[in-house]
Structures are given as structure tokens and as C-alpha cells.
């Protein structure tokens, strides 16, 4: 982890910046422009340099909290806060710009469905082409636990991948990733440069210190891992100081810079790996070699031990061993009902001869091998 402070921003054509609830509504008394002015000026200056910007903005629940009994844990109250706060948040951002903005509200269901994901991409590209600033947030009013991304750090990484961004800037309440919690240790050291995200990096990430937001440093590391695997330069920076954004514009690193993969995942493989949720599982024997099968392009019903879940042709599924070890994610060429039937039939000797030519269960072009 080299402490390199220089950032090559000259070739950036498109960036995504993620702003959290603590910046939007720091006092839980509606939206405040106190911290947003510097961020808005950064966005304006980026656009003046020809850099397209997508803004991922949390804050609808925090912005609307003052209108309701904020002590209530009732989920309906939280959704009402989001519904009321979303309009206030969009109005606040809109007042800070002299160009048009557009609201995009998403759930994980929108992102994990391939057709809807492509539709989101096309909408973002069209907005940018027309000079409109896309402002993205999770649709907290309608989402459920099953459909939610859960935090806008990870959502920002998914959006950055969908938008083919060159950089993702995640605003935090501290300067970046430290080797230990800076709120508890005076000798905590800022990591300016991270070349590889591993267990050691995750061990440095603690929970959230904000009583407003839902994301902590761990979710920011998760987001960084998603983004760098798509070839996106990722930064965790302090969003509460204007110096942060001046440094970025000057080509300096104000926080932690996560280096992108030298060989990023292809667009569809990245979506399979980091965005699409598995709708079911195909279980194989413990000695099954996913990498070897990938090279040969084959996984047939003869290798299947069990089929779990309800899925259709084209859905993403997880291939795992009987012992639970995940092997791969991929799009399936069979629905669960037919695959169950074929697997059962394949276990009988007379049926084997008839099923020798059964096609590959998973699509060869969309196999994401998972590390064991």
C-alpha cells in the first residue's frame, strides 16, 4: 500500500459521486446546503472541464424525518419519511445548479433484471448526452428487504459500472480508509493508495459512526471492490471539507485511492458477479472443477446433484458444491422445473443414453468463476 498522492484526472470523461445522508441532512431537520455547496461547485467545475457527472444521493429518509415521529421504528413511517424527503432533497440539489437535473429511483430488482439494467444504462447515457445531471437514489418508499440494495455505497458502485464511469468518488465523514479506527486511535494511519482489496483491508473497516446514515466503512470497501473490478478508479474522501474537491480537481488524492483492475471484468460478467442476484442454485459433487468445466464450456444435467429454488431460462443461478462451497454464477439455459426433471432422469441408467447430448446448463459467455 504505497502512499501515492498523485491522481491522473486528465483522461476522466465520466465520474460518479456518492453523497450520504449526513451531508444532506446533518441535523435531521430537513435538507441543508451547508456541506452541499462545495460538492455542487465541484460538479459544476467538472462539467465545465467536459467531465460528465452522475450523482448518487442518499438522504430522503433523513430529509423527511423532521415531518414525522422520528423515534418510530415502524417501517411505514420510514417509507413515508422517504417519500416526503425525496422531493425536498431533489429541490435542494436543483437550487444549487443552473442546469437541469433528473431523478432516477431504483431498487435492486431493477438492477438485477438484465433488460431493466440495460434500460437504466440507456437512460443515464441519454441524460448525460443532453446535459442533464442524473441524480440516483434507492427507491426507499417501495422497496422491501428482498428488493433493496441496502446502502447507497454499493448502489453507487453498481451505477458507476452501469454508466461506464472512469471514477467513483464516495464521500465519507473521515479522510478515507485508516489502518485502525481514527475515532479511537490517535496513531491511526490513512492509507492513501490501495492496490488490492483483501481480508486485511476489510479488517480495517468498522461500523458507521454516523447516527444519520446506514453505510459504514465496510460498505464503502464493498463498493470499491465492485467498482475497481470494472476498471473504475475509486476514492473514499472526506465530503465535509471543500479542500477535498479542490485537491481532486488539481489532480491530487485527498483520501484513499483504490486502484482499478489492470484487466477489468467484461460488462456482462461484471453484472453477473456484482449486481445480479442468484435466483436459485445448482448443486454438484464436491470434486467438481468449475474452472475446468468453464474451459470446456460444459455443465450438463449428468453433473447435477440437486436443484434448489425457482428460476427461469436466462435467470442468474449459483453453482455450488454439496459442501456449500460456491463455484460460479451464470445465466441458466434451463428453468428449474425442467432441470429438476432432467437431473432426476439422468440418475437412471436407461435415460443416460437419451440425454448424452443435453446442452450446457449454464451460458458459457456468462460464467463468473468464484474464488473458493
UniProtKB/TrEMBL annotation:
It catalyses: L-glutamate + ATP = L-glutamyl 5-phosphate + ADP. Pathway: Amino-acid biosynthesis; L-proline biosynthesis; L-glutamate 5-semialdehyde from L-glutamate: step 1/2. Its main location: cytoplasm. SUPFAM superfamilies: Carbamate kinase-like, PUA domain-like. Pfam families: AA_kinase, PUA. Its EC number is 2.7.2.11. The keyword tRNA processing does not apply. Residues 280-336 form the PUA domain. It is found in: Cytoplasm. GO terms for molecular function: glutamate 5-kinase activity. Belongs to the glutamate 5-kinase family. Catalyzes the transfer of a phosphate group to glutamate to form L-glutamate 5-phosphate. This is Glutamate 5-kinase. It comes from Agaribacter flavus.
Amino acid at each position: 500500500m504505497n502512499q501515492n498522492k498523485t491522481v491522473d484526472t486528465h483522461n476522466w470523461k465520466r465520474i460518479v459521486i456518492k453523497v450520504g445522508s449526513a451531508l444532506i441532512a446533518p441535523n435531521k431537520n430537513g435538507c441543508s446546503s451547508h456541506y452541499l455547496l462545495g460538492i455542487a461547485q465541484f460538479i459544476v467545475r467538472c462539467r465545465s472541464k467536459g467531465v460528465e457527472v452522475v450523482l448518487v444521493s442518499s438522504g430522503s429518509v433523513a430529509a423527511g424525518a423532521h415531518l414525522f415521529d422520528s423515534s418510530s421504528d415502524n417501517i411505514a413511517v420510514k417509507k413515508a419519511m422517504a417519500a416526503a424527503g425525496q422531493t425536498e432533497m431533489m429541490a435542494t440539489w436543483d437550487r444549487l445548479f443552473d442546469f437541469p437535473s433528473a431523478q432516477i429511483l431504483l431498487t435492486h430488482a431493477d438492477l438485477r433484471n438484465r433488460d431493466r439494467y440495460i434500460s437504466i444504462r440507456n437512460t443515464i447515457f441519454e441524460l448525460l448526452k443532453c446535459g442533464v445531471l442524473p441524480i440516483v437514489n434507492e427507491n426507499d418508499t417501495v422497496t422491501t428487504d428482498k428488493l433493496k440494495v441496502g446502502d447507497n455505497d454499493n448502489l453507487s458502485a453498481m451505477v458507476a459500472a452501469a454508466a461506464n464511469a472512469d471514477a467513483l468518488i464516495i464521500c465519507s465523514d473521515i479522510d478515507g480508509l485508516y489502518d485502525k479506527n481514527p475515532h479511537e486511535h490517535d496513531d491511526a494511519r490513512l492509507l492513501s493508495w490501495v492496490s488490492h482489496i483483501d481480508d486485511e483491508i476489510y479488517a480495517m473497516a468498522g461500523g458507521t459512526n454516523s447516527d444519520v446514515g446506514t453505510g459504514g466503512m465496510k460498505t464503502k470497501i464493498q463498493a470499491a471492490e465492485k467498482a475497481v473490478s470494472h476498471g473504475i478508479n475509486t476514492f473514499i474522501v472526506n465530503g465535509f471539507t471543500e479542500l477535498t474537491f479542490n485537491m481532486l480537481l488539481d489532480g491530487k488524492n485527498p483520501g484513499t485511492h483504490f486502484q482499478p483492475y489492470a484487466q477489468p471484468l467484461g460488462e456482462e460478467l461484471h453484472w453477473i458477479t456484482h449486481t445480479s442476484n442468484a435466483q436459485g442454485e445448482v448443486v454438484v459433487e464436491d470434486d467438481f472443477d468449475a474452472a475446468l468445466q468453464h474451459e470446456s464450456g460444459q455443465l450438463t444435467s449428468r453433473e447435477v446433484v440437486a436443484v434448489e429454488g425457482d428460476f427461469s431460462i436466462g435467470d442468474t443461478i449459483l453453482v455450488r458444491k454439496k459442501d456449500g462451497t460456491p463455484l460460479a454464477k451464470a445465466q441458466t439455459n434451463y428453468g428449474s422445473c425442467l432441470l429438476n426433471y432432467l437431473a432426476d432422469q439422468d440418475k437412471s441408467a436407461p435415460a443416460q443414453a437419451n440425454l448424452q447430448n443435453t446442452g450446457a446448463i449454464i451460458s458459457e459467455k456468462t460464467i463468473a468463476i468464484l474464488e473458493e
